[in-house]
Specification:
The complex is a heterodimer of chains A (246) and B (179). With 246 residues, chain A is mostly helical. Chain A has helices at residues 3-19, 36-53, 55-85, 98-121, 124-132, 140-170, 189-219, 222-230; strands at 29-31, 34-35. Chain A has two domains: 3-122, no CATH class; 127-176 and 188-230, no CATH class. Chain A is built from eight helices and two strands. The N and C termini of chain A lie close together (12 Å). By secondary structure, chain B is mostly helical. Chain B has one domain: Arp2/3 complex 21 kDa subunit ARPC3 (Orthogonal Bundle). Chain B contains seven helices and two strands; from the N terminus they run αββαααααα. A two-stranded antiparallel ribbon of chain B has the order 1-2. Chain B is globular. The chains are: A mainly alpha (246), B mainly alpha (179). The interface between A and B is large, with 54 and 45 residues.
Chain lengths: 246, 179
């Protein structure tokens, strides 16, 4: 099956996620906030994703979907419970937002795999190679698209993983030991504030460090690539342009 | 087109793609939901603001329009419209007032960032309190917020904007020193 057909199928599969049709036509509820249509859509998405991308890619897609979705759902659930404990926002019982987060979990576990599958079925490497082989002319639009594609791949698959590794190796975001303190004596307000202030400042500095590293790595090769891509033979009016990528 | 101007255009396209991808990752990975509204708190604004400060209003606006909106497509598609418009103006305004990519007497990064945060908070409030409820009358897909929920989101959006602006200012100062 060609990548274009796969992408079209996935685009069709994404329609219910964006406009709610035809799921809104099937309204039978399982629990408050969750209906059979949503569950059916979730199962369909994962089935189609597995079939179109293959087992190995699907495993990766499932892992990333879980990684993105679960903190959102559990983080939100924790905040809702906190709101209940603090009697904020009119939250009357601990399960006030329960149905909402269940719905959110199902939505994210449906939408995220569709998006990742779309990226997985497009052969980025093959597209890039066809454009830079040099035996065919390219339009200005294709040159810009090639640059964006390269940068996107570089940031997503080289920069982010290396930054995560550096953060792990250098222990960025690990809280340093606070020094000796008398555990039996409760901390005063001034001490608590100072501790909070120091930790906040350290966290800010660490986030700035990560941000600077990310930006430097992301833009590192752009000048080189812009010179390389600008040297590709360009289509001129009256000259046949390259065939579209199949 | 001459080689130099073409190289420069490709360079700009690459920079926009890089910052948009960083904003996409920053928005997608660091997400804390806001229960009352269905929206979420994230740090993707940092890269939108840095793009505006370092490369000017056009880059900031395009990065704001593309990166965070793409992230909304992954999980929160109802907010794509609001995010694209609000962050377009946020990045653009930060670039106009605080950016060093355009000729002006003295860039004002702190003022630019403050205005960016104001656009972020005000823009989302207007969309969620006014525009989305009106759109929802014809397109139920946009029926996700109301004025009460929009008000509840003001404080988290302020917090998001301020934290992102502080990080963006720190990053800007590091790059300014090395130029």
């Amino acid at each position: 099956m060609s990548w274009k057909l796969k992408a079209t199928l996935l685009l069709g599969l994404a329609i219910p996620a964006f406009c709610g049709w035809p799921m809104s036509c099937f309204g039978a509820q399982i629990v408050p906030g969750i209906d059979w249509a949503a569950v059916g859509y979730l199962v369909s998405v994962h089935l189609v994703s597995c079939l179109l991308t293959g087992g190995r890619s699907y495993n990766r897609i499932l892992a990333i979907s879980a990684m993105i979705s679960l903190p959102v759902v559990f983080g939100g659930g924790s905040i809702s419970y906190l709101m209940y404990l603090l009697n904020m926002g009119g939250v009357s019982d601990p399960y006030f937002f329960g149905a909402h987060y269940l719905e959110l979990a199902i939505t994210m576990l449906s939408v995220v795999p569709v998006a990742l599958s779309m990226v997985a079925v497009i052969p980025m490497g093959a597209l890039e190679q066809r454009l830079i082989r040099g035996r065919q002319v390219v339009t200005r639009f294709q040159k810009s698209a090639l640059m964006c594609l390269r940068v996107f791949n570089h940031v997503l698959f080289n920069v982010i993983p290396s930054i995560v590794e550096i953060m792990h190796e250098e222990g960025i975001f690990h809280t340093p030991p606070q020094g000796t303190s008398d555990a039996s004596r409760p901390m005063s307000l001034g001490e608590r504030w100072q501790r909070f202030h120091c930790r906040s400042k350290l966290l800010l500095q660490q986030l700035i460090q990560v941000g600077v590293q990310g930006i430097c790595s992301a833009i590192e090769y752009i000048p080189l690539w812009s010179v390389e891509i600008s040297q590709l033979p360009e289509a001129t009016p009256g000259k046949q342009t390259s065939d579209s990528i199949h | 087109m001459s080689q130099t101007s073409e190289t420069k255009k490709l360079l700009n396209a690459g920079v926009i793609a890089a910052f948009a991808t960083l904003a996409f990752v920053g928005t997608t990975v660091i997400r804390v939901p806001i229960p009352a509204t269905g929206g979420y708190f994230n740090l993707g604004d940092t890269f939108v603001m840095v793009a505006g400060l370092l490369y000017g209003p056009l880059t900031g606006a395009l990065v704001g329009m593309i990166g965070p909106a793409l992230s909304d497509a992954v999980g929160f598609p109802q907010f794509i419209l609001a995010t694209a418009v609000v962050k377009f103006f946020e990045g653009g305004l930060v670039g106009v007032v605080g950016g060093s990519g355009i000729k002006r007497s003295q860039p004002q990064p702190v003022l630019g960032l403050c205005l960016g945060v104001a656009v972020l908070v005000g823009g989302y409030f207007i969309f969620e309190a006014l525009i989305y409820p009106i759109l929802a009358k014809w397109i139920p897909f946009f029926g996700v917020t109301d004025p009460k929920a929009a008000l509840a989101e003001v404080v988290p959006n302020c917090l998001q904007g301020v934290i992102s602006a502080l990080i963006a200012l720190g990053i800007y100062r590091v790059f300014k020193k090395t130029r």
